[in-house]
Specification:
Helix content is about 40%, strand content about 20%. It has about 425 residues and is α/β, with parallel strands linked by helices. The strands form 3 sheets. It has an 8-stranded mixed β-sheet. Strands 2-4-3 form a 3-stranded antiparallel β-sheet. Strands 13-12-14 form a 3-stranded parallel β-sheet, with helices on both faces. Helix 1 packs antiparallel against helix 5 and helix 6 packs across helix 9.
């Protein structure tokens, strides 16, 4: 059997320089979020297949890497002939595992609970720039807080974290888009769509930024919806910018609770007061987010020059109740870690260097054991003082060796010879 040296499609080998950058960004994220009181947790990479296929994950449920039953259990499943061969699957996000985690550990956790998760997730997706089949997610969630302080804290914490990350490459401006699933539903009902049509309609609206209002209209009509209803629905979407109060007034109180609008205004105003002036926060009624578990406020972050979002999230007040029988208020924001790394790479000159004043000892092969031990003790002392030290045998082409070490961030070189 021939071994294959390349990674599985959609997955990537991480070189040392890749890991230096990733660790650096993860340290920023961890440090920034901890200042807002978020506590780090960890959940298993595999979940029960029943949880993953509960119709909460939208299209992501079509992308699950399923794990087959083992041994006699697999044979019984084959013999049963029902095609149900999987009992577990790799998690496709961190939100559903968090809901299960909270339901299982609720009595041991503070209320409200501010959770930070950082870990890999897997989706059998079509790989492209900034999109992989295995990728890191960094999530913050607030569980047990039904006030709009949850949304405001999440927006402020995420904005501050992104500002810290991007400040290193001179990017200060990005946009936070905000909407509410109930506003989306109200607009569809006002236009004449039926309740059972809403999810299908929103799938088309979700493509607004790619195909425009005319493209959405054509798709809805192609899907069999009445052209008059479609035109009524889309007449308020043909704009570049939207005013929340004006948009919601057109929907009317019959289809949209005024408290939802008041809450949206407050979230936007309070968040704007807490974030950097270079960051724009705007109401975006075309924002949908495809996850089936969202119940209220939703948000995404975009940056000029890139056709993908770099963070997203929202409120999902019904998910935890599926596990424990009692609904718990929940709201979260997820940073698109791999996409952020892609942007950083696009703007960086060369690889990220590790700390200054790192020392490399280059030892000639003729150096006796006593002198070698002396160098190793010196290296140990420097490491104890916090200095990064590497000890290597001296190569014939020392210039090339030093160039390679300099590329890794080493600035001080000790050359050890026999005499």
């Amino acid at each position: 059997m021939k071994f294959i040296k390349t990674p599985v499609k959609g997955m990537v080998d991480m070189l040392p320089q890749d890991m230096r950058l990733r660790r650096h960004v993860l340290d920023i994220i961890r440090g920034s979020y901890s200042q807002y009181g978020f506590m780090e947790i960890e959940t298993p990479v595999m979940e029960h297949i029943e949880n993953l296929t509960s119709k909460q994950g939208g299209d992501n449920e079509k992308l699950i890497f399923k794990v087959l039953k083992r041994g006699a259990d697999l044979q019984r499943a084959i013999d049963a002939g029902k095609g149900e061969y999987a009992d577990n699957g790799l998690r496709y996000d961190l939100t559903l595992p968090l809901a299960r985690y909270y339901a299982n550990n609720r009595e041991k956790l503070p209320a409200p609970f501010k959770a930070l998760q950082m870990g890999n997730v897997w989706r059998a997706d079509n790989p492209q720039k900034g999109r992989f089949r295995q990728f890191m997610q960094c999530d913050i969630d607030i569980l047990g807080d039904d006030s709009d302080l949850a949304e405001i804290e999440l927006i402020a914490a995420t904005s501050n974290t992104l500002s810290r990350i991007f400040s290193e490459i001179g990017i200060t401006d990005f946009t936070i888009h905000i909407n509410d699933r109930r506003i989306l539903s109200g607009a569809a009902l006002k236009a004449g769509f039926k309740e059972e049509d809403i999810e299908s309609v929103l799938i088309s609206l979700d493509k607004y930024d790619k195909i425009g209002v005319d493209g959405v209209r054509a798709e809805l009509i192609e899907n069999g919806y009445d052209p008059q209803t479609v035109d009524s629905y889309l007449q308020v979407y043909g704009q570049d910018r939207f005013d929340c109060d004006a948009f919601c007034s057109a929907i009317g109180d019959e289809y949209l609770d005024p408290e939802i609008v008041r809450r949206m205004d407050e979230i936007m105003a309070c968040s704007a007061a807490m974030i950097d002036s270079h960051i724009t926060i705007e109401f975006d009624p075309t924002l949908v987010r495809g996850m089936g578990y969202y119940t209220g406020t939703i948000f995404e972050v975009s940056i000029d020059g890139y056709n993908f979002s770099i963070a997203g999230g929202g409120r999902y007040d019904k998910m935890i109740g599926r596990f424990c029988g009692q609904d718990v208020s929940a709201c979260g924001f997820s940073i698109g870690f791999e996409r952020i790394i892609t942007i950083l790479r696009d703007h960086m000159e060369g690889d990220m260097k590790i700390d200054e004043n790192n020392t490399a000892f280059l030892i000639d092969k003729k150096v006796p054991s006593e002198k070698k031990m002396e160098v190793l003790r010196q290296a140990a002392q420097l490491r104890a003082q916090g200095t990064t030290v590497i000890v290597q045998p001296m190569r014939k082409n020392m210039k090339q060796q030093i160039n390679m070490l300099e590329a890794q961030g080493y600035t001080k070189f000790e050359k050890i010879y026999k005499d």
